[in-house]
Amino acid sequence: MTALTDDTLPITPRAMRDEMIVFVLMALALAAVPWTGIYPFFVMQALCFALLACAFNLLIGYGGLLSFGHAMFLGTAGYCSAHALKVWGLPPELGIVVGVAAAAALAVVTGFISIRRQGIYFSMITLALSQLLYFIYLQTPFTHGEDGIQGIPQGHLFGFIDLSKPTTLYYVVLVGFLAGFLLIYRTINSPFGEVLKSIRENEQRAISLGYKTDHYKLLAYILSGTLAGFAGSLKVFVAQNASLTDVHWSMSGEIVLMTLVGGLGTVFGPVVGAFVIIAMQQYLAGFGQWVTVIQGVIFVACVLLFRRGVVGEIAHFFKRSL
Amino acid sequence: MQALYAQLLVGLINGSFYALLSLGLAVIFGMLNIINFAHGALYMMGAFVAYFLLNNNWLSIGYWPALIIAPIIVGIFGMILERTLLQWLTGLDHLYGLLLTFGIALIVQGVFQNYFGSSGLPYAIPDELKGGMNLGFMFLPVYRGWVVVFSLVVCLATWFLIERTRLGAYLRAATENPTLVRAFGINVPRMITLTYGLGVGLAALAGVLSAPINQVRPLMGADLIIVVFAVVVIGGMGSIMGSIITGFALGVIEGLTKYFYPEASNTVVFVLMVLVLLVKPTGLTGRAA
After folding, report:
1. What are the two backbone dihedrals, phi and then psi, of residue A212, each rounded to the nearest 5 degrees?
2. Mean pLDDT for back-to-back runs of 10 residues, chain A (322 residues)
3. Domain ranges (residues) in chain A
4. Which of A1, A61, B171, B186 is at 20 to 30 A from A105, Cα to Cα?
């Protein structure tokens, strides 16, 4: 069996420097967006999905666990934040805390169940768990079923940052994204991340070296789910609604697609993938269901011809890790 | 009591679809090491092929021939997929198989949705199976009884084919050790293609059977496949008989839930999956993955 990615070497100072340069360039480019006339809503949405895809990538790219249910964290955090903001009238920072805490709790419970099986079964279990949650959200009153929670107030972050101004909101979302990204980057280059990679490469050997691999996998799962929840909470402020589409299996599929397009197990791949897929949806919105067909074609093409993804191919070409 | 029996029957019918689909998934997984995410889409194609056969003015082929023709057509489509796409996955991580077949499912479902929207198309019950029988304790619509009996027969025939015939012995041997079986002069790649065709054909057959009951919709297989995944996790994919029994049993449990606690009827299979994972992580009949 071949590994999912070909970076198995520990990170070198040179690779670290390359990655930091790219990170700074990315942060500067994103910070300049409000002056370029690009529709900020589009970039904010893409940033939320980029963080979501990065969180997903932590699990598949570094732990070798393909979750087909990551939409459940997006949707759960979204619903809980939306409810806290709209019904309880909490300020934005507490609304985010409520959403992230809910996603973390969900990750603890579902992680405990799903890491009992490996490989393909793990994917099927996460998919089934997210479908279970979908039906629960369809029936519980607080989610308002098919309508979703709408007209969510954006409020003032910490009492003085007005989130209803698009530019202000943009920078808040950007800071949230960069913080999440750096946390993931730190995790994958920590000793913890190295153990995760060893589990991805050869779990039996990791066990024989004395690592309690289940603990590592569960921790990675919880971290990934919590960060995905953070993305979901941020998205509430951007979209100002929380609906069933965020918990649906097709959303989980989109998260997988973004990461696959960008490059599984690459640091920047999920970000690129998220922008590509969100842009595609934006421009092809008039084509109706053909968007689904195109997504399917991209899946097939990526798996058969393009397994490294955009960033993975670039990194391979320059023989760098990105 | 009437309502209870009626729900039990619905449960048995859903159970037959679970059994037919999880059986196909297990057979395909055994040979190809792929979890066929496209299974639900191919189930839907089976129903649509039957619909076209009936409603095309030139053909107007009825239910009985469709029961044979539709699985063959979809099976051939599946074999073409296997030859053109799936075969390139040999030697790669299992997860790529899931991703590739998920892509295929999106394509197939998207194309059908474009042309037929999301609403259901009616498919009439054939004349021979119209009406119902009074069994004393309940009224049994003939068609529904037929679906349960026929599915059970097909499941058992598949079990017999794989567990008791020479062809099945080759198949099981190739699952264990393809290289060795090839050394004995058996064309394993062709067998893999045929196996995929067989598994897909079973899904299409379930699609034709369900057409008169559930209507023909482009997304009819999308939600079903997730339930079938849960069934597969519960039953494990190690044994053919295990998939059949788990499929029917979960259908019945779902039917009972619809009667006693309807709010949970959508979720009961998933909840059971969680319980089974907590008690016996390898599934009821499965070996460690």
Report:
1. -80, 90
2. 50 80 91 84 93 95 91 95 91 93 96 88 92 92 84 82 85 95 92 90 90 93 96 93 91 94 92 93 84 92 90 84 72
3. 13-248
4. A61
